[in-house]
Amino acid sequence: NYLTNENIKKIFDAYFGWKEIEGFSKIITIEEARENNYNLSPSRYVSVDEKEEFQPVEDILVELGKVEEERERVDREMKEILTKIGFEW
């Protein structure tokens, strides 16, 4: 996982703007923190209802096949070039 510049800006704006954003940030009281044993894990206070979408396995297998064919083509080309310059397998 990595943060894009857009993600960093959103975090910055929420934190320094003291903003509560549904599904992203929540402002809690000291009492709420105490009730949760001072656990400040975001998942304890912010619920995300987004469902992660996955690419169908069939599509992944098709793409994998294409990538494998490309890899084999590049391997053949590399071997030809290395043979031409005198490198033997």
Using only C-alpha atoms, the radius of gyration works out to 25 Å
Judged by helices, strands and strand pairing, the structural class is mainly alpha
Q: What does the largest sheet look like?
A: none
Q: State the low-pLDDT regions, or none.
A: none
Topology order in helix (H) and strand (E) letters: HHHH
What is the helix tally?
4
Multimeric organization? single chain
Overall pLDDT metric = 91
Distance between the termini: 39 Å
Give the tally of structural domains: 2
| Form type | elongated
Q: Which percent range fits the helix content? A: 55-70%
In terms of DSSP E residues, the strand content is: under 5%
Number of strands: 0
Task: Summarize this structure briefly.
By secondary structure, the chain is mainly alpha-helical. Helices cover 56% and strands 0% of the residues.
